[in-house]
Amino acid sequence: MKLNFMNRFDRQIPLRDGRRLGYAEYGDALGRPVFHFHGFPSSRLEAGLHHTLLQQRNIRLIAVDRPGCGLSDYQPGRRMLDWPDDVVELADALGIGRFGVLGVSGGGPYALACAWKIPERLDAVTLVCGLGPVHDPGLRDVMGWHARLAFLLARHSPRLLWPVYSGTLAIGVRLWPGTTYVWKMASTPGADRATLRDVEVKTCLMASVRESVRHGSAGVAREALLYTNDWGFSLAEIELPVDLWHGTADRIVPPSHTQFIARAVARPRVHLLEGEGHFSLPIRHMGAMLG
């Protein structure tokens, strides 16, 4: 797999409220449209790892930066349920009627928000290592200490979240991306560690995380607040089929998150892959997910 990072699409559209929404397109420009919602913290660039596979599968993947991340302007006071409106506006601008949504990790809640709010526009809903509602203590407490700290700050001391992210995340990612990546490798199990050693994976993921704080950390901090507070909709009211993919060795978002979502939605289709982790699963098995 050879990917030319200099030829990525860096696109924006103006939204009705005056903001700009950033996105990239990968795969087959005439293929079946699927909107990709990136992880946390991340950006549209993470989907570039699948460009060749998407071409082979005739998929047009539109990877969208959420507000305050990458090329998308910050949206003060935004809610989880504001996201489907941005997606519809982008789809309309691109002349797309019905489409699929693919939410990876922290993008999972946004895919579920679309399934709840705009089901008439969707023909597929897929979550990969999807984050569950971490305002539930049982889901939050099974995560790593850094995630628990971020979500607890967001829930109980949100004013502390901005300096933490501005100092630790934004500066660290910009100045010492390699160190940040090595720390991530050290905290993952075997399947993920092997995947993260791949040079192309490393290049793509480091670029994507750096891009997430291109204009500062306000967008990422807002994400943490949204995850840890009530999402504004009931999972039980989602009537579309939801495909849920998760690796049994995922230590970043444990599989109990997918099991929680599967119990809540009306029509879950659960795919648990033995021994796969948070990074190895989407990189090794995206072909099956697209199928």
List the helices and strands and how they pair.
Elements: E1 11-14, E2 20-27, E3 32-37, H1 51-56, E4 59-64, H2 83-93, E5 99-104, H3 108-117, E6 122-128, H4 137-140, H5 145-156, H6 158-175, H7 177-186, H8 190-196, H9 199-212, H10 218-228, E7 241-247, H11 256-264, E8 267-273, H12 280-290
Parallel strand pairs: 3-4, 3-5, 5-6, 6-7, 7-8
Antiparallel strand pairs: 1-2, 2-4
Give your account of this protein's structure:
With 291 residues, the chain is an alpha/beta fold. The chain is 42% helix and 18% strand. Helix 5 (145-156) packs across helix 6, helix 5 (145-156) crosses helix 10 and helix 6 (158-175) crosses helix 10. The chain is globular.
Brief overview:
With 291 residues, the protein is of the alpha/beta class. It contains twelve helices and eight strands. Helix content is 42%, strand content 18%.
